[in-house]
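hiii so um. not sure if this is the right channel but i have a protein structure encoded as tokens and i wanna go backwards to a sequence. like what aa goes where. can anyone help
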């Protein structure tokens, strides 16, 4: 009798799911960006939002909520009503936060991953007055001036911070972190000469390198970037074995209907394959990612484990 009831209910559930997907969305959507305007994650959000607006027939609003390495805005987003109208565009620092911050939600169990949107390296850049051109020269300068070389990032626990900590650990040097509430302010102050270095996603900083307002030192990926082939990798220019890749992706509150997750995944997958979006990504030194929600979840799990090891190895204290 129980099996008979289950078999009767399944078609009803399938029909309800289909109806939900067809009726959705009925009002504007919100993408929470847990960083300040102007940063790499904000750039990706503002590129994707108009594409979703066009595809869904409803306005998609970008809502910047910076603070605490992205944890504040992320918490606002993932604790919202799971009705498919609030999403969070997170960066790779999302995988760092569980080992660095005392966050109030489980980054795997309390969310619904939607799609990984883009991947790319971080860029280590310097104010033009800094007397270094290579990683080898940067290591030598840092060794001669312990804790005097400052590097700006989008906040404590951000990917820029982790890149800096891993660099210091592997190179045997000591530099000073200058955390900001977002990539934009960090880049602005480095351009103004308030800090020696900047470590940020290449999406935001490459244009300033091209204009001469910042000086490129190296990219953190295993290979050079096609858009800027003259910029060497950290590994090839002084620190063998070093590699870090950044990304941006969309997540939603737990229990968002799967039909909605699949709809948004599909629309973003289409958007990042469009020629104008790919050209914009390429010009920024990154590439489209894509894939299923399950693939994105696997990536998050793997990176959480990886960064826990790095944080422990580098001796970074909890905050």
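sure thing!! here u go:
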């Amino acid at each position: 009798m129980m099996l008979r009831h289950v078999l009767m209910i399944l078609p009803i559930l399938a029909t309800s799911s289909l109806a939900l997907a067809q009726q959705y969305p009925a009002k504007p959507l919100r993408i929470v960006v847990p960083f300040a305007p102007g940063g790499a994650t904000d750039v990706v959000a503002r590129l994707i939002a108009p594409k979703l607006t066009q595809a869904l027939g409803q306005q998609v609003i970008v809502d910047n909520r910076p603070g605490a390495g992205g944890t504040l805005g992320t918490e606002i987003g993932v604790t919202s009503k799971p009705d498919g109208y609030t999403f969070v565009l997170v960066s790779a620092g999302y995988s760092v936060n569980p080992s660095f911050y005392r966050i109030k939600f489980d980054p795997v169990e309390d969310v619904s991953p939607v799609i990984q949107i883009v991947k790319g390296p971080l860029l280590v850049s310097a104010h033009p007055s800094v007397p270094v051109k290579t990683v080898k020269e940067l290591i030598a300068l840092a060794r001669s001036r312990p804790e005097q070389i400052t590097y700006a990032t989008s906040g404590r626990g951000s990917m820029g911070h982790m890149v800096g900590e891993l660099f210091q650990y592997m190179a045997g040097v000591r530099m000073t972190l200058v955390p900001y509430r977002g990539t934009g302010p960090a880049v602005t102050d480095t351009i103004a000469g308030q800090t020696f270095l900047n470590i940020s996603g290449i999406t935001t900083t490459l244009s300033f390198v091209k204009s001469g307002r910042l000086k490129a030192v190296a990219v953190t990926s295993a290979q050079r970037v096609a858009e800027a082939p003259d910029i060497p990798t950290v590994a090839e220019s002084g620190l063998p074995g070093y590699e870090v890749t950044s990304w941006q992706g969309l997540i939603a509150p737990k229990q968002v209907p799967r039909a909605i997750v699949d709809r948004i995944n599909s629309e973003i997958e289409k958007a990042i394959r469009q020629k104008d979006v790919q050209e914009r990504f390429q010009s920024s030194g990154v590439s489209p990612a894509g894939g299923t929600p399950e693939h994105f979840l696997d990536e998050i799990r793997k990176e959480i484990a990886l960064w826990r090891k790095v944080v422990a190895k580098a001796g970074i204290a909890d905050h």
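oh and The beta strands are 29-33, 60-64, 86-91, 111-126, 150-153, 176-179, 197-201, 215-219, 245-253, 287-288.
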